[in-house]
Structures are given as C-alpha cells and as structure tokens.
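User: Here's a structure from my thesis project, written as structure tokens. My advisor, Dr. K., wants to see whether a designed sequence matches the one we expressed. Can you design one independently, without my sequence as a hint?
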C-alpha cells in the first residue's frame, strides 16, 4: 500500500491551506510536493521587496504569452516557485471578492459554493486586525492589516475618492458598495504573511504531514481510470509517488491545465498537436481562461512627497532600511498599493465593477528602478472581465514553454468597461485635494483622449493582473472539467483545487479567494473521506520506481 493518502501538488496559496486542513486528521497521511524551496531570501519577508525576485528563476516561474494586441505585445507572467507560491512574492492585497460572486457560482449549479459557505471559510482562518466587524474572522492563522503609518498622500487620495461617491472605510472587506480606504494586506508587524507562513510552517511537525521541495511534477499515473500517483523529477532522477486515496492538483490556473494536458487529459487537437497520447478527451482543459488586465495611469507630482524620496537614492534607501529594521514601519512595510478603491464604471451598473490601486511610487521605464522625481502609480481593473483566453502545451516535454493566449479586451463589454475605468482614474485625480499635487499625467498621457487611444494604452501600457482563472472550471454540465466537489470528470481519485476551477472571475485580487476555496475544498474532501473505500495496492502501468520517503528526504534536506 502507498505511503500517502493524499498527494497535494503545489505549495502555493491553495496547497498550503489544503495540506494544513487535511493533515489535521491524524488518520490521513499527506504529502505536499513543491518545485521550489523554502523562503530563505530576506526579500520574501520584507513586503515591498518581494517583487525584486520576479526575475529570479530560483523563486519564480517565468511564463510568456503569445504576442497580442496591435503592437504584438509579449508579457512575462511570473508565478511563485517557493513554499507559499505566489503569496510569497505578490502584492499582498487582501480582497475577499463580492458576496454576489459566490452566490453566482451557486446559481450556476455549483452546490455549496455560495457566500455563506465561503464567508465561513474566510472567518475560519482570518486574523483581521483592522476592525472588529462580525463579518470578518479573528484569531485565525492569516493576519490581515493596514499600514500603521500611512503616507499622508494616501489619505489625500482617499479624500478625493470620497468626492466621487466612494465611502471611506477602515476595512474595505466589510462592504461591497463603492468605497475607498487603505489597502488591506497579508502583513503582520511589518512582515509579509505568505500562505506558507500562516498555514504550513506552524504544522510542519505533524507526523502525518510530509513536505517535499525541489521536485517538479511531470505527469499523473493512471490505473483503470483512477489517478494512483504522479511522476516527479528531482534533478536528473525521475520517480513515482503513489497515493491510496487522491491526487489533488493545486498548481494554479497555468500549472493545473498543463499537468492534465501532459497526462493526456485535454482537448484532442491540443494533445495530438503536442504529441501526447489522448487518455481522456476534455475540450475545456486549458480553455475559458480569464485574467484582469491592469490599466496603468502614472502622475508626476509637484511636491516631493510619497515613497520615491525614500527609495530612490542610496542614502535614502539606507535610512529607510534602518527605520524598517528598528520599527517595522515605513515604505518597506507597505503592500504594493497604499489605497484601494471600488466603483461603478457606469451609474447603471447593478454593482461595483471597477477597482483602482494607488501607490505613492513610480518606477523607471525598465520597471525596476524607483524614480527620483515624486510620482503616483494607479492600477485599475475591470473586476469581472468576460474575455476568454487559453493555456496549451505544445510538447510532451514538461520543461517546454506553455502557449498562453490572454485574449484581453476581446468582448464589447470589456472594451467599454476598460475605457470607463481609465476615465474614472483620471476623474479621481482631478478632485481636490489630490488635484493640487498633480503636475502632469505621465501615462497614458494627455495625447490619449479618444476611446481608441485609451484602448490602445490599455494593451500597450497595461499589464497582467496576475489573476488568471478558469482553465479547469467547475460546473454541473458534462463539459465542465471538474464537478462542484472539484473532482475531475472521468477520472477517479483526482481533484483540482486552485483558481483554475472558477468559471467566473471574482471581483478583485485573487489570493484571498484561492485560500478560501482551498479551505472549502478541504471540507468537501473530508466529508467524502469515510465514504471512500481505500483501494488495495495497484501495479504501475507506467515506468519509474515508487519511492518511500524518510522525513529528511521529504523535507528536501
């Protein structure tokens, strides 16, 4: 019999939560497999510095899109390659999404995914230090906070938002109305709180939990229609890990469809073109992808305020670092955005459908160096885009790059909403008191005024929101990749638990929903636990030795 009952693939936001919750039952032996290592770099602890690792292949996967838009733009989509996954390198903004998002999931036929269930999952792991509202949780594993010493310009921007009908709230997750406030973030006492920090590290000593790092998942092992294990690689060694109960893919909206396709589960034409034998023809694996297109406005300020003055020069950096080390405060302790706002792109919209994240920081053209002159950056998003892209393999080689087609702004709704988001951002910075600090708009620039010019800027000067979803979407119909228990249709013993299962986009940043959905999935898996008969040992139909792991090997030591 295999050593493990559950093999969880991917140590990111969903995988860490799932490993925590499943291993809480001492009957179940859980293995968490992660391609990266532990978060040793100090940049992974200091909130403002995590993005500096975006180009470091030791900590980040580098995916590239196909050329898109009139200028044939190609983007690099980074994803975390470390325990904690993208939560170890992301912008840390904590946004639950709207009640209506999850109620819509249930309305679409996904039983048990309404707001009541998801809100309970949120409250179960939150340690909300912002407010004492009954809508949020306290005392859980994941600390959510706002900065303790906000830059005055953040409060100035928030005051301007109030003039556009956005109510100022201390805790933006308390309401779904048009609102503005300091950005809630997964930060505790000036340190980043990743999924590994919150959910995995505190339970690493559980005797029934093993964590295997530095291991790349190559494909699934099937026997008589059941997933019985995975083929993995460490260095030049390839071997098979087997499970008694289930394999659970938590590899994300890019990684999970890749694994299924490499294992022969996916659209027949995609698999045949890539040279992968078809095990199960599933048209929607890798399809229906949605992502937030981030629309960027930047402004030059007429006074030396904001974060640039603290982070541009070497003396300023030293002073800021000393302050951070002594107090855990200052620009280094802040999330990507200082202020978060939600609004309707049109008064006739039934609910909030636009978002803007404002940071008192601007970067030089190469995207890495902080500018010396003072500035503000604004990142806007259509909250619920309808354009659908795709993720495809083009080779049976797991190391071969994916073919990622974002297909941004391909629907009429998305194009209209994108223009409205950009115009709303402009309108915000025309309001007092922030208008008095603005010297000039740097991008898109005053030359972009027509709808077509703004749409061009949305593609050419925008960027991915890092929020891809939908590539293994759930639903009640036979063409949905997973059912509402997240079981892959047509294969026993295999589930997908990550953002790929969402058939619709949630209204905001996706890290918080990824963790809540994993907590909800753990409940579903545990409810099935006693109803599943544990199969006897199976013969492998694919090559590779089965490995029994000692604790040292499992921990990557």
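Assistant: Designed independently from the structure alone:
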């Amino acid at each position: 019999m295999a050593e493990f009952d559950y093999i969880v693939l991917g140590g990111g936001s969903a995988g860490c939560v799932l490993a925590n919750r499943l291993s809480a039952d001492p009957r179940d032996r859980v293995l968490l497999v992660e391609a990266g290592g532990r978060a040793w770099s100090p940049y992974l602890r200091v909130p403002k510095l995590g993005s500096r690792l975006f180009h470091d292949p030791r900590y980040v996967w580098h995916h590239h899109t196909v050329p898109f838009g009139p200028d044939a733009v190609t983007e690099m989509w980074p994803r975390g390659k470390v325990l904690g996954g993208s939560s170890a390198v992301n912008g840390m903004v904590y946004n639950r999404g709207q009640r209506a998002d999850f109620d819509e999931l249930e309305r679409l036929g996904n039983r048990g995914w309404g707001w009541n269930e998801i809100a309970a999952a949120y409250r179960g792991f939150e340690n909300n230090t912002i407010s004492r509202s009954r809508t949020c949780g306290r005392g859980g594993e994941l600390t959510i906070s706002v900065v303790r010493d906000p830059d005055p310009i953040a409060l100035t921007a928030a005051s301007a938002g109030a003039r556009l009908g956005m109510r100022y709230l201390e805790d933006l997750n308390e309401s779904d109305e048009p609102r503005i406030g300091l950005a809630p973030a997964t930060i505790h006492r000036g340190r980043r709180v990743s999924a590994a920090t919150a959910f995995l590290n505190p339970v690493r000593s559980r005797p029934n939990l093993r964590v295997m790092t530095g291991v790349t998942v190559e494909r699934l092992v099937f026997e008589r229609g059941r997933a019985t294990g995975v083929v993995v690689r460490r260095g030049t060694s390839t071997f098979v890990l087997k499970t008694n109960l289930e394999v659970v893919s938590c590899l994300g909206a890019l990684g999970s469809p890749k694994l299924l396709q490499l294992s022969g589960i996916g659209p027949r034409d995609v698999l045949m073109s890539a040279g992968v034998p078809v095990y199960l023809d599933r048209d929607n694996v890798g399809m229906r992808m949605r992502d937030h297109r981030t629309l960027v406005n930047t402004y030059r300020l007429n006074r030396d305020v904001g974060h640039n003055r603290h982070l541009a020069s070497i003396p300023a950096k030293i002073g800021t670092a000393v302050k951070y080390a002594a107090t855990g405060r200052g620009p280094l302790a802040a999330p990507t955005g200082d202020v978060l706002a939600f609004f309707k792109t049109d008064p006739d919209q039934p609910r909030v459908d636009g978002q803007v994240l404002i940071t008192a920081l601007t970067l030089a053209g190469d995207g890495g160096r902080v500018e010396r002159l003072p500035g503000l950056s604004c990142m806007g998003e259509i909250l619920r885009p309808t354009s659908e892209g795709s993720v495809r393999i083009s080779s049976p080689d797991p190391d071969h790059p994916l073919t990622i087609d974002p297909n941004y702004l391909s629907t009429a709704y998305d194009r209209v909403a994108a223009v409205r988001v950009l115009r709303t951002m402009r309108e915000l910075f025309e309001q007092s008191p922030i208008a008095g600090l603005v010297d000039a708009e740097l991008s898109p620039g005053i030359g972009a005024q027509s709808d077509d010019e703004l749409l061009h800027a949305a593609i050419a000067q925008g960027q991915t929101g890092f929020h891809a979803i939908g590539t293994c979407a759930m639903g009640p119909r036979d063409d949905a990749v997973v059912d509402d228990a997240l079981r892959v249709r047509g294969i026993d013993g295999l589930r997908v638990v990550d953002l790929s299962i969402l058939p619709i986009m949630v209204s905001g940043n996706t890290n918080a929903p990824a963790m809540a959905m994993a907590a909800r999935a753990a409940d579903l898996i545990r409810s099935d636990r006693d109803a599943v008969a544990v199969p006897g040992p199976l013969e492998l139909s694919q090559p590779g030795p089965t490995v029994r792991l000692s604790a040292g090997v499992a921990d990557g030591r």
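When you compare it with your expressed construct, this may help: The chain is about 25% helix and 20% strand.
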